[in-house]
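Colleagues,

Please find the record for the two-part complex below.
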Amino acid sequence: MDEPSLAARIRVVLVGTQHPGNIGSAARAMKTMGLSRLALVAPERYPHADADALAAGAGDVLAAATLHADLAAAVADCTLVLGCTARSRRVPLPEHGPREAAAMALDEAAGGGEVALVFGRERTGLENDELQLCHAAVHIPANPDYSSLNLAAAVQVLAWELRSAMLGRAPAAQVEPRDPPASHAQLEGLFAQLAETLDAIDFHKGRAPESAMRKLRRLFLRSRLDAREVRLLRGVLADAQRMARLAGGGEHP
Amino acid sequence: MDEPSLAARIRVVLVGTQHPGNIGSAARAMKTMGLSRLALVAPERYPHADADALAAGAGDVLAAATLHADLAAAVADCTLVLGCTARSRRVPLPEHGPREAAAMALDEAAGGGEVALVFGRERTGLENDELQLCHAAVHIPANPDYSSLNLAAAVQVLAWELRSAMLGRAPAAQVEPRDPPASHAQLEGLFAQLAETLDAIDFHKGRAPESAMRKLRRLFLRSRLDAREVRLLRGVLADAQRMARLAGGGEHP
Protein backbone atom coordinates (compact mmCIF):
# COMPACT_ATOMS: atom_id res chain seq x y z
CA MET A 1 0.00 0.00 0.00
CA ASP A 2 1.45 3.38 -0.85
CA GLU A 3 2.14 6.22 1.51
CA PRO A 4 -1.01 8.35 1.01
CA SER A 5 -3.32 5.39 1.42
CA LEU A 6 -1.56 4.39 4.63
CA ALA A 7 -1.86 7.94 5.96
CA ALA A 8 -5.56 7.90 5.08
CA ARG A 9 -6.10 5.11 7.62
CA ILE A 10 -4.52 7.06 10.46
CA ARG A 11 -6.36 9.79 12.33
CA VAL A 12 -5.24 12.19 15.04
CA VAL A 13 -7.79 12.62 17.83
CA LEU A 14 -7.53 15.63 20.13
CA VAL A 15 -9.56 15.25 23.31
CA GLY A 16 -10.86 18.23 25.27
CA THR A 17 -8.32 20.65 23.85
CA GLN A 18 -8.36 23.85 25.90
CA HIS A 19 -6.56 26.30 23.62
CA PRO A 20 -7.92 26.56 20.08
CA GLY A 21 -4.51 27.71 18.85
CA ASN A 22 -3.17 24.27 19.68
CA ILE A 23 -5.76 22.70 17.39
CA GLY A 24 -4.48 24.86 14.55
CA SER A 25 -0.84 24.10 15.32
CA ALA A 26 -1.61 20.39 15.50
CA ALA A 27 -3.31 20.55 12.09
CA ARG A 28 -0.23 22.25 10.66
CA ALA A 29 2.09 19.67 12.24
CA MET A 30 -0.04 16.89 10.74
CA LYS A 31 -0.14 18.31 7.26
CA THR A 32 3.62 18.88 7.09
CA MET A 33 3.97 15.16 7.74
CA GLY A 34 1.32 14.09 5.23
CA LEU A 35 -1.50 13.37 7.69
CA SER A 36 -4.91 14.85 7.03
CA ARG A 37 -7.52 13.20 9.25
CA LEU A 38 -8.25 15.16 12.40
CA ALA A 39 -10.99 14.35 14.93
CA LEU A 40 -11.87 16.73 17.75
CA VAL A 41 -13.55 15.49 20.90
CA ALA A 42 -15.35 18.18 22.89
CA PRO A 43 -12.84 20.99 22.31
CA GLU A 44 -13.34 23.83 24.82
CA ARG A 45 -13.48 26.57 22.19
CA TYR A 46 -13.95 25.67 18.56
CA PRO A 47 -14.22 26.94 15.88
CA HIS A 48 -11.98 29.86 16.82
CA ALA A 49 -9.87 32.43 14.98
CA ASP A 50 -6.71 31.23 16.80
CA ALA A 51 -7.15 27.76 15.36
CA ASP A 52 -7.42 29.16 11.85
CA ALA A 53 -4.45 31.48 12.32
CA LEU A 54 -2.09 28.82 13.65
CA ALA A 55 -3.15 26.22 11.11
CA ALA A 56 -1.46 28.46 8.52
CA GLY A 57 -1.59 26.50 5.25
CA ALA A 58 -3.35 23.54 6.88
CA GLY A 59 -6.79 25.11 6.83
CA ASP A 60 -8.05 22.19 4.75
CA VAL A 61 -7.20 19.78 7.57
CA LEU A 62 -9.17 21.93 10.02
CA ALA A 63 -12.08 22.30 7.62
CA ALA A 64 -12.33 18.53 7.24
CA ALA A 65 -11.99 17.82 10.99
CA THR A 66 -14.82 15.87 12.57
CA LEU A 67 -16.39 16.82 15.91
CA HIS A 68 -17.43 14.27 18.52
CA ALA A 69 -19.06 14.34 21.92
CA ASP A 70 -16.76 11.74 23.42
CA LEU A 71 -13.74 9.64 22.60
CA ALA A 72 -15.74 6.46 22.09
CA ALA A 73 -17.61 8.10 19.23
CA ALA A 74 -14.40 9.35 17.64
CA VAL A 75 -12.78 5.92 17.59
CA ALA A 76 -15.84 3.70 17.09
CA ASP A 77 -14.55 2.26 13.81
CA CYS A 78 -10.91 2.05 14.86
CA THR A 79 -9.05 -1.23 15.17
CA LEU A 80 -6.03 0.26 16.94
CA VAL A 81 -6.29 3.11 19.43
CA LEU A 82 -3.05 4.50 20.83
CA GLY A 83 -3.25 6.99 23.69
CA CYS A 84 -0.40 9.43 24.27
CA THR A 85 0.36 9.79 27.94
CA ALA A 86 2.84 11.17 30.41
CA ARG A 87 4.60 8.44 32.29
CA SER A 88 2.80 8.34 35.64
CA ARG A 89 -0.39 6.67 34.59
CA ARG A 90 -2.92 5.02 36.76
CA VAL A 91 -4.27 2.73 34.09
CA PRO A 92 -1.72 0.08 33.26
CA LEU A 93 -1.45 -0.41 29.51
CA PRO A 94 1.36 -1.70 27.36
CA GLU A 95 3.53 1.31 26.71
CA HIS A 96 5.49 2.10 23.57
CA GLY A 97 7.82 4.82 22.44
CA PRO A 98 6.96 6.95 19.40
CA ARG A 99 9.00 4.87 16.97
CA GLU A 100 7.49 1.59 18.05
CA ALA A 101 4.02 3.12 18.05
CA ALA A 102 4.51 4.43 14.52
CA ALA A 103 5.54 0.98 13.34
CA MET A 104 2.46 -0.55 15.00
CA ALA A 105 0.21 2.06 13.42
CA LEU A 106 1.60 1.46 9.95
CA ASP A 107 1.38 -2.31 10.30
CA GLU A 108 -2.23 -1.92 11.31
CA ALA A 109 -3.02 0.44 8.44
CA ALA A 110 -1.21 -1.81 5.97
CA GLY A 111 -3.38 -4.70 7.17
CA GLY A 112 -6.53 -2.72 6.43
CA GLY A 113 -7.15 -1.44 9.96
CA GLU A 114 -8.12 2.03 11.11
CA VAL A 115 -5.78 3.71 13.57
CA ALA A 116 -6.32 6.53 16.07
CA LEU A 117 -3.55 8.46 17.79
CA VAL A 118 -5.20 10.11 20.76
CA PHE A 119 -3.91 13.21 22.54
CA GLY A 120 -5.46 14.45 25.78
CA ARG A 121 -6.00 17.84 27.39
CA GLU A 122 -3.09 20.25 27.70
CA ARG A 123 -3.03 20.19 31.49
CA THR A 124 -4.51 16.90 32.51
CA GLY A 125 -4.11 14.54 29.56
CA LEU A 126 -6.49 11.63 29.09
CA GLU A 127 -8.84 10.50 31.83
CA ASN A 128 -8.88 6.95 33.08
CA ASP A 129 -12.07 6.01 31.27
CA GLU A 130 -10.55 7.37 28.05
CA LEU A 131 -7.38 5.35 28.55
CA GLN A 132 -9.58 2.28 29.01
CA LEU A 133 -10.57 2.66 25.35
CA CYS A 134 -6.95 2.46 24.20
CA HIS A 135 -5.14 -0.67 23.10
CA ALA A 136 -1.81 0.74 24.19
CA ALA A 137 -0.16 3.88 25.48
CA VAL A 138 2.46 5.93 23.68
CA HIS A 139 4.97 7.75 25.80
CA ILE A 140 7.49 10.28 24.50
CA PRO A 141 10.52 9.76 26.71
CA ALA A 142 11.08 13.44 27.41
CA ASN A 143 13.50 15.09 29.81
CA PRO A 144 12.35 13.89 33.26
CA ASP A 145 13.13 17.33 34.70
CA TYR A 146 10.84 19.03 32.18
CA SER A 147 8.62 16.77 30.19
CA SER A 148 6.02 19.37 29.29
CA LEU A 149 5.76 19.09 25.52
CA ASN A 150 3.31 21.47 23.95
CA LEU A 151 0.34 19.57 22.49
CA ALA A 152 1.29 20.41 18.89
CA ALA A 153 4.90 19.44 19.64
CA ALA A 154 3.76 16.00 20.76
CA VAL A 155 1.66 15.67 17.61
CA GLN A 156 4.70 16.77 15.58
CA VAL A 157 6.93 14.09 17.11
CA LEU A 158 4.43 11.31 16.48
CA ALA A 159 3.57 12.57 13.00
CA TRP A 160 7.26 12.76 12.14
CA GLU A 161 7.83 9.20 13.32
CA LEU A 162 4.90 8.07 11.18
CA ARG A 163 6.24 9.88 8.15
CA SER A 164 9.76 8.63 8.73
CA ALA A 165 8.48 5.08 9.01
CA MET A 166 6.33 5.48 5.89
CA LEU A 167 9.26 6.79 3.88
CA GLY A 168 11.47 4.03 5.24
CA ARG A 169 9.09 1.27 4.23
CA ALA A 170 9.89 -0.88 1.29
CA PRO A 171 7.26 -0.18 -1.36
CA ALA A 172 5.58 -3.54 -1.04
CA ALA A 173 6.11 -4.79 2.48
CA GLN A 174 4.25 -8.07 2.68
CA VAL A 175 2.01 -8.12 5.68
CA GLU A 176 0.76 -11.42 6.94
CA PRO A 177 -2.84 -11.82 5.85
CA ARG A 178 -5.08 -11.50 8.84
CA ASP A 179 -8.77 -11.58 9.47
CA PRO A 180 -10.24 -8.09 9.73
CA PRO A 181 -9.43 -6.69 13.16
CA ALA A 182 -12.27 -6.05 15.55
CA SER A 183 -13.55 -2.50 15.64
CA HIS A 184 -13.89 -0.51 18.81
CA ALA A 185 -17.66 -1.03 18.75
CA GLN A 186 -17.27 -4.81 18.37
CA LEU A 187 -14.87 -4.92 21.30
CA GLU A 188 -17.19 -2.85 23.47
CA GLY A 189 -20.00 -5.23 22.60
CA LEU A 190 -17.83 -8.10 23.77
CA PHE A 191 -16.92 -6.31 27.00
CA ALA A 192 -20.55 -5.50 27.74
CA GLN A 193 -21.54 -9.14 27.28
CA LEU A 194 -18.57 -10.24 29.37
CA ALA A 195 -19.66 -7.97 32.22
CA GLU A 196 -23.20 -9.38 32.03
CA THR A 197 -21.86 -12.91 32.02
CA LEU A 198 -19.67 -12.34 35.07
CA ASP A 199 -22.75 -11.11 36.90
CA ALA A 200 -24.84 -14.03 35.67
CA ILE A 201 -22.38 -16.68 36.81
CA ASP A 202 -21.91 -14.82 40.11
CA PHE A 203 -18.22 -14.32 39.55
CA HIS A 204 -17.86 -11.26 41.75
CA LYS A 205 -19.45 -12.72 44.91
CA GLY A 206 -19.86 -9.32 46.47
CA ARG A 207 -16.54 -7.85 45.31
CA ALA A 208 -16.57 -4.68 43.21
CA PRO A 209 -16.76 -5.75 39.55
CA GLU A 210 -14.50 -2.96 38.23
CA SER A 211 -11.17 -4.55 39.04
CA ALA A 212 -11.80 -7.82 37.23
CA MET A 213 -13.32 -6.09 34.22
CA ARG A 214 -10.38 -3.71 34.00
CA LYS A 215 -7.95 -6.60 33.94
CA LEU A 216 -9.97 -8.54 31.39
CA ARG A 217 -10.34 -5.49 29.14
CA ARG A 218 -6.62 -4.94 29.24
CA LEU A 219 -5.94 -8.55 28.39
CA PHE A 220 -8.31 -8.63 25.42
CA LEU A 221 -7.32 -5.20 24.11
CA ARG A 222 -3.71 -6.28 24.21
CA SER A 223 -4.58 -9.43 22.28
CA ARG A 224 -5.69 -7.42 19.26
CA LEU A 225 -8.71 -9.62 18.65
CA ASP A 226 -10.02 -9.99 15.15
CA ALA A 227 -13.73 -9.87 14.35
CA ARG A 228 -13.98 -13.65 14.12
CA GLU A 229 -12.42 -14.10 17.54
CA VAL A 230 -14.87 -11.64 19.02
CA ARG A 231 -17.73 -13.72 17.58
CA LEU A 232 -16.18 -16.90 18.98
CA LEU A 233 -15.78 -15.44 22.47
CA ARG A 234 -19.30 -14.03 22.40
CA GLY A 235 -20.58 -17.46 21.46
CA VAL A 236 -18.87 -18.94 24.50
CA LEU A 237 -20.31 -16.20 26.71
CA ALA A 238 -23.79 -16.73 25.31
CA ASP A 239 -23.66 -20.40 26.29
CA ALA A 240 -22.38 -19.54 29.76
CA GLN A 241 -25.26 -17.08 30.12
CA ARG A 242 -27.71 -19.74 28.97
CA MET A 243 -26.38 -22.15 31.60
CA ALA A 244 -26.67 -19.48 34.27
CA ARG A 245 -30.30 -18.94 33.33
CA LEU A 246 -30.97 -22.67 33.50
CA ALA A 247 -29.14 -22.85 36.81
CA GLY A 248 -31.20 -19.99 38.16
CA GLY A 249 -34.26 -22.01 37.14
CA GLY A 250 -32.77 -25.10 38.78
CA GLU A 251 -32.09 -23.36 42.05
CA HIS A 252 -35.40 -21.58 42.33
CA PRO A 253 -37.94 -23.70 40.54
CA MET B 1 29.96 9.64 27.94
CA ASP B 2 26.57 9.98 29.57
CA GLU B 3 23.53 11.70 28.19
CA PRO B 4 23.80 15.13 29.92
CA SER B 5 27.44 15.55 28.96
CA LEU B 6 26.65 14.67 25.35
CA ALA B 7 23.79 17.18 25.33
CA ALA B 8 26.12 19.83 26.77
CA ARG B 9 28.22 19.65 23.61
CA ILE B 10 25.28 20.30 21.30
CA ARG B 11 23.85 23.78 20.78
CA VAL B 12 20.86 25.03 18.83
CA VAL B 13 21.53 28.19 16.83
CA LEU B 14 18.58 30.29 15.63
CA VAL B 15 19.55 32.74 12.89
CA GLY B 16 17.62 35.96 12.26
CA THR B 17 14.44 34.73 13.92
CA GLN B 18 11.57 37.06 13.06
CA HIS B 19 8.96 36.14 15.67
CA PRO B 20 10.16 36.19 19.29
CA GLY B 21 7.46 33.68 20.22
CA ASN B 22 9.28 31.14 18.07
CA ILE B 23 12.42 31.63 20.15
CA GLY B 24 10.44 30.80 23.28
CA SER B 25 8.79 27.78 21.68
CA ALA B 26 12.17 26.54 20.45
CA ALA B 27 13.60 26.85 23.97
CA ARG B 28 10.71 24.82 25.30
CA ALA B 29 11.14 22.17 22.61
CA MET B 30 14.85 21.93 23.45
CA LYS B 31 14.37 21.59 27.17
CA THR B 32 11.75 18.87 26.86
CA MET B 33 14.37 16.88 24.98
CA GLY B 34 17.19 17.59 27.43
CA LEU B 35 19.00 20.27 25.39
CA SER B 36 19.91 23.52 27.10
CA ARG B 37 22.36 25.48 24.95
CA LEU B 38 20.70 28.08 22.78
CA ALA B 39 22.51 30.68 20.66
CA LEU B 40 20.65 33.52 18.97
CA VAL B 41 22.08 35.23 15.92
CA ALA B 42 20.67 38.71 15.28
CA PRO B 43 17.05 37.99 16.26
CA GLU B 44 14.69 40.67 14.94
CA ARG B 45 13.03 41.33 18.30
CA TYR B 46 14.64 40.05 21.46
CA PRO B 47 14.22 40.02 24.42
CA HIS B 48 10.45 40.04 24.11
CA ALA B 49 7.49 39.08 26.27
CA ASP B 50 6.29 36.56 23.64
CA ALA B 51 9.55 34.66 23.94
CA ASP B 52 9.19 34.43 27.70
CA ALA B 53 5.53 33.43 27.50
CA LEU B 54 6.05 30.63 24.99
CA ALA B 55 9.16 29.29 26.69
CA ALA B 56 6.84 28.27 29.57
CA GLY B 57 9.03 26.31 31.98
CA ALA B 58 12.13 26.71 29.81
CA GLY B 59 12.89 30.24 30.97
CA ASP B 60 16.30 29.04 32.15
CA VAL B 61 17.24 28.06 28.60
CA LEU B 62 16.26 31.53 27.37
CA ALA B 63 18.06 33.24 30.23
CA ALA B 64 21.27 31.38 29.40
CA ALA B 65 21.01 31.97 25.64
CA THR B 66 23.94 33.72 24.04
CA LEU B 67 23.53 36.56 21.53
CA HIS B 68 25.70 36.92 18.45
CA ALA B 69 26.00 39.37 15.61
CA ASP B 70 26.48 36.72 12.96
CA LEU B 71 26.53 32.95 12.51
CA ALA B 72 30.32 32.75 12.32
CA ALA B 73 30.57 34.13 15.84
CA ALA B 74 27.96 31.70 17.17
CA VAL B 75 29.74 28.61 15.82
CA ALA B 76 33.35 29.76 16.13
CA ASP B 77 34.31 26.91 18.49
CA CYS B 78 32.23 24.23 16.75
CA THR B 79 33.72 21.17 15.10
CA LEU B 80 30.48 20.16 13.37
CA VAL B 81 27.92 22.64 12.04
CA LEU B 82 24.71 21.24 10.60
CA GLY B 83 22.39 23.62 8.78
CA CYS B 84 18.68 22.83 8.55
CA THR B 85 17.31 23.62 5.15
CA ALA B 86 14.39 23.21 2.86
CA ARG B 87 15.24 21.04 -0.10
CA SER B 88 15.89 23.52 -2.89
CA ARG B 89 19.26 24.87 -1.89
CA ARG B 90 21.69 26.70 -4.01
CA VAL B 91 24.78 25.73 -2.06
CA PRO B 92 25.61 22.10 -2.62
CA LEU B 93 26.32 20.37 0.68
CA PRO B 94 26.05 16.77 1.76
CA GLU B 95 22.48 16.37 2.93
CA HIS B 96 21.21 14.17 5.74
CA GLY B 97 17.87 13.32 7.26
CA PRO B 98 17.17 14.12 10.93
CA ARG B 99 18.07 10.63 12.17
CA GLU B 100 21.36 10.49 10.36
CA ALA B 101 22.17 14.03 11.47
CA ALA B 102 21.43 13.15 15.09
CA ALA B 103 23.78 10.18 14.89
CA MET B 104 26.51 12.37 13.40
CA ALA B 105 26.02 14.99 16.11
CA LEU B 106 26.26 12.43 18.90
CA ASP B 107 29.32 10.79 17.39
CA GLU B 108 30.96 14.19 17.22
CA ALA B 109 30.00 15.07 20.80
CA ALA B 110 31.11 11.67 22.06
CA GLY B 111 34.48 12.29 20.42
CA GLY B 112 34.84 15.54 22.33
CA GLY B 113 33.66 17.86 19.54
CA GLU B 114 31.27 20.80 19.71
CA VAL B 115 28.15 20.62 17.57
CA ALA B 116 25.81 23.31 16.25
CA LEU B 117 22.37 22.68 14.79
CA VAL B 118 21.52 25.82 12.85
CA PHE B 119 17.99 26.96 11.97
CA GLY B 120 17.38 29.88 9.62
CA ARG B 121 14.73 32.57 9.32
CA GLU B 122 11.04 31.60 9.30
CA ARG B 123 10.44 32.79 5.74
CA THR B 124 13.75 32.60 3.98
CA GLY B 125 15.90 30.12 5.87
CA LEU B 126 19.68 30.36 5.80
CA GLU B 127 21.49 32.55 3.33
CA ASN B 128 24.16 31.25 1.03
CA ASP B 129 27.07 32.66 3.05
CA GLU B 130 25.60 31.07 6.17
CA LEU B 131 25.26 27.68 4.50
CA GLN B 132 28.92 28.00 3.51
CA LEU B 133 29.76 27.75 7.22
CA CYS B 134 27.99 24.41 7.55
CA HIS B 135 29.64 21.03 7.23
CA ALA B 136 26.44 19.47 6.06
CA ALA B 137 22.78 20.19 5.55
CA VAL B 138 19.90 18.57 7.42
CA HIS B 139 16.64 18.21 5.59
CA ILE B 140 13.38 17.10 7.19
CA PRO B 141 11.60 15.14 4.45
CA ALA B 142 8.23 16.82 4.90
CA ASN B 143 5.09 16.54 2.79
CA PRO B 144 6.13 17.95 -0.59
CA ASP B 145 2.70 19.56 -0.93
CA TYR B 146 3.13 21.44 2.34
CA SER B 147 6.58 21.41 3.84
CA SER B 148 6.17 24.51 5.97
CA LEU B 149 7.19 23.33 9.43
CA ASN B 150 7.00 25.96 12.08
CA LEU B 151 10.50 26.86 13.32
CA ALA B 152 9.88 25.37 16.78
CA ALA B 153 8.41 22.24 15.14
CA ALA B 154 11.63 21.76 13.17
CA VAL B 155 13.65 22.22 16.37
CA GLN B 156 11.35 19.70 18.07
CA VAL B 157 11.91 17.07 15.40
CA LEU B 158 15.70 17.44 15.51
CA ALA B 159 15.79 17.61 19.31
CA TRP B 160 13.62 14.50 19.52
CA GLU B 161 15.94 12.61 17.18
CA LEU B 162 18.91 13.64 19.30
CA ARG B 163 17.19 12.53 22.47
CA SER B 164 16.02 9.28 20.93
CA ALA B 165 19.58 8.56 19.76
CA MET B 166 20.99 9.45 23.17
CA LEU B 167 18.53 7.18 24.94
CA GLY B 168 19.30 4.45 22.43
CA ARG B 169 22.92 4.62 23.45
CA ALA B 170 22.02 4.34 27.12
CA PRO B 171 23.33 1.07 28.52
CA ALA B 172 20.06 -0.46 29.71
CA ALA B 173 16.70 0.52 28.33
CA GLN B 174 14.16 0.63 31.12
CA VAL B 175 11.56 -2.03 30.65
CA GLU B 176 8.24 -1.67 32.40
CA PRO B 177 8.00 -4.19 35.20
CA ARG B 178 5.37 -6.78 34.54
CA ASP B 179 3.88 -9.64 36.46
CA PRO B 180 5.69 -12.90 35.87
CA PRO B 181 4.54 -14.48 32.61
CA ALA B 182 2.52 -17.65 32.82
CA SER B 183 4.49 -20.86 32.48
CA HIS B 184 3.75 -23.42 29.84
CA ALA B 185 2.20 -25.65 32.51
CA GLN B 186 -0.04 -22.86 33.77
CA LEU B 187 -1.23 -22.16 30.24
CA GLU B 188 -1.93 -25.83 29.58
CA GLY B 189 -3.89 -25.97 32.83
CA LEU B 190 -5.97 -23.05 31.59
CA PHE B 191 -6.56 -24.66 28.19
CA ALA B 192 -7.60 -27.96 29.78
CA GLN B 193 -10.12 -26.19 31.98
CA LEU B 194 -11.31 -24.14 29.02
CA ALA B 195 -11.94 -27.33 27.03
CA GLU B 196 -13.87 -28.84 29.94
CA THR B 197 -15.91 -25.68 30.30
CA LEU B 198 -16.83 -25.58 26.61
CA ASP B 199 -18.10 -29.14 26.97
CA ALA B 200 -19.98 -28.33 30.15
CA ILE B 201 -21.81 -25.33 28.71
CA ASP B 202 -22.52 -27.32 25.53
CA PHE B 203 -20.68 -24.89 23.34
CA HIS B 204 -19.88 -27.35 20.56
CA LYS B 205 -23.41 -28.61 19.99
CA GLY B 206 -22.21 -31.59 18.03
CA ARG B 207 -19.40 -29.84 16.13
CA ALA B 208 -15.86 -31.12 16.52
CA PRO B 209 -14.29 -29.26 19.45
CA GLU B 210 -10.80 -28.99 17.93
CA SER B 211 -11.42 -25.94 15.76
CA ALA B 212 -12.69 -23.67 18.51
CA MET B 213 -10.01 -24.78 20.94
CA ARG B 214 -7.30 -24.19 18.36
CA LYS B 215 -8.52 -20.63 17.82
CA LEU B 216 -8.81 -19.92 21.53
CA ARG B 217 -5.34 -21.31 22.24
CA ARG B 218 -3.88 -19.14 19.53
CA LEU B 219 -5.64 -16.08 20.92
CA PHE B 220 -4.47 -16.64 24.49
CA LEU B 221 -0.95 -17.65 23.55
CA ARG B 222 -0.63 -14.49 21.51
CA SER B 223 -1.75 -12.45 24.50
CA ARG B 224 1.30 -13.46 26.54
CA LEU B 225 -0.81 -13.98 29.66
CA ASP B 226 0.80 -13.49 33.02
CA ALA B 227 0.23 -15.86 35.94
CA ARG B 228 -2.29 -13.55 37.56
CA GLU B 229 -4.36 -13.34 34.39
CA VAL B 230 -4.40 -17.12 34.12
CA ARG B 231 -5.78 -17.31 37.66
CA LEU B 232 -8.40 -14.69 36.83
CA LEU B 233 -9.55 -16.54 33.70
CA ARG B 234 -9.62 -19.86 35.54
CA GLY B 235 -11.78 -18.26 38.21
CA VAL B 236 -14.25 -17.19 35.53
CA LEU B 237 -14.24 -20.68 34.02
CA ALA B 238 -14.77 -22.29 37.43
CA ASP B 239 -17.92 -20.23 37.94
CA ALA B 240 -19.19 -21.07 34.47
CA GLN B 241 -18.61 -24.77 35.24
CA ARG B 242 -20.45 -24.41 38.53
CA MET B 243 -23.43 -22.85 36.73
CA ALA B 244 -23.39 -25.66 34.19
CA ARG B 245 -23.51 -28.23 36.99
CA LEU B 246 -26.44 -26.41 38.59
CA ALA B 247 -28.17 -26.19 35.22
CA GLY B 248 -27.56 -29.88 34.60
CA GLY B 249 -29.20 -30.52 37.96
CA GLY B 250 -32.09 -28.31 36.89
CA GLU B 251 -32.60 -30.12 33.60
CA HIS B 252 -32.32 -33.63 34.91
CA PRO B 253 -33.46 -33.53 38.50
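Chain B is about 50% helix and 10% strand.

Comments are welcome before we finalize the supplementary table.
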